[in-house]
Amino acid sequence: MDKNVNTPLVTVFMAAFNGEAYIEKAIQSVLNQSFTDFELLIVNDGSTDRTLDIIHQFTDPRIRLVHNDGNKGLTFTRNRGIEEAKGKYIAVLDCDDLATPDRLKSQISFLNSNPEFAICGGQAILIDESGKQTGNLNVMAGDKSISPELVFQNTFINSTLMIKRSAMIEAGGYRDYSPAEDYDLSYRISLHHPVTNLNEVLVAYRLHNNNISKLQEEKVVRAELRIIENIHTNLGIPKDENLIRIHHDYFSYRFSARSSKEFLQVFEALKKGNATAGSYAAQVFNEILYKKWYSLLRHKKEKGVLPLFFGSKLFEWQYVTAKELRKVVKQAFFRNILRRN
């Protein structure tokens, strides 16, 4: 092998378990990259279908195949990827997704110009099982708000991520937070390094028709609750199971599950915690909290909106626009008229 293969700048990591339906196209999308200083590390997690036969059809020397001792699961396999990777950066691609031809080039161009960043993700298009585009998957781009926004949602599409391997090791790798281990790792890295998303489509993200079982749903919720508990701990918020669950209802867009006052408890606790912990720039974090509070009040349309709006610890005149002020006053005015009628 030549020097580039032995010491590539990028390791494209692909976990493979029974991926015969789509892995050939996924591999080809990597080999078609305009940026060529990479290895494609495939970790086979005990596949029992034709996955290995398909991989062995490729003769490109940049492909490196390693095997787990049986089916170890995704968290183990992803950590094996970190361990085996030779590149400075690890670019994640699931074995059923497709990388756009300039994906690696765009991310390396950004990271070479901004070496302080530890994560660089991007946008995606959605494709169905036949490969037909069905929509777009957009996440916030830029760097100002992405880290604090991770307090409220996963702002990354995992299959678009390029991550500094050293930052992954520093954070302790993936933890057993399946199926949200990628969100957990991104959040922990963001506490110590700048992170960003490019405003560019980097992958075609495949959606499957599989129905999520109740057991899987419960597993997702448990993982998300653990992450939210960690977020509260890092902000110095005393452990409160009810507060964690209210936060999770907001995280899951279940706005009707709680009153505005209950959500306000979470927002004010987060603001107070960050004021002490200093995890995020106060100006940025407090404005995010205010905007979320304003949007929530507009969405829920509960009575007493003016005292809730002006009386909360989230309200600061510097964040309020004239348009927002007009809308919230108008909302209160029309609600009073309707109540009188």
Topology:
Elements: H1 3-6, E1 10-16, H2 23-31, E2 38-44, H3 51-56, E3 63-67, H4 74-84, E4 89-92, E5 98-99, H5 103-113, E6 119-127, E7 133-137, H6 146-149, E8 162-164, H7 165-170, H8 181-190, E9 195-206, H9 214-234, H10 241-251, H11 260-277, H12 282-300, H13 305-311, H14 322-340
Parallel strand pairs: 1-2, 1-4, 2-3, 6-9
Antiparallel strand pairs: 4-8, 5-9, 6-7, 6-8
Helix pairs in contact: 9-10, 10-11, 11-12
Please tally the β strands and state the result. 9
Would you identify the CATH H-level superfamily of the largest domain? Answer: Spore Coat Polysaccharide Biosynthesis Protein SpsA, Chain A
Distance N terminus to C terminus? Answer: 81 Å
Percent helix: 40-55%
SS field, number of helical segments: 14
**Main sheet attributes: strand count, strand direction, barrel closure:** 9 strands, mixed
Oligomer: single chain
CATH class of the largest domain: Alpha Beta
Bulk shape: elongated
Q: Could you say what the CATH topology of the largest domain is called?
A: Spore Coat Polysaccharide Biosynthesis Protein SpsA, Chain A
Determine Rg (CA atoms, Å).
23 Å
Keywords: Transferase
GO molecular function: transferase activity
Protein name: Glycosyl transferase family 2
InterPro entries: Glyco_trans_2-like (IPR001173), Glycosyltransf_2 (IPR050834), Nucleotide-diphossugar_trans (IPR029044)
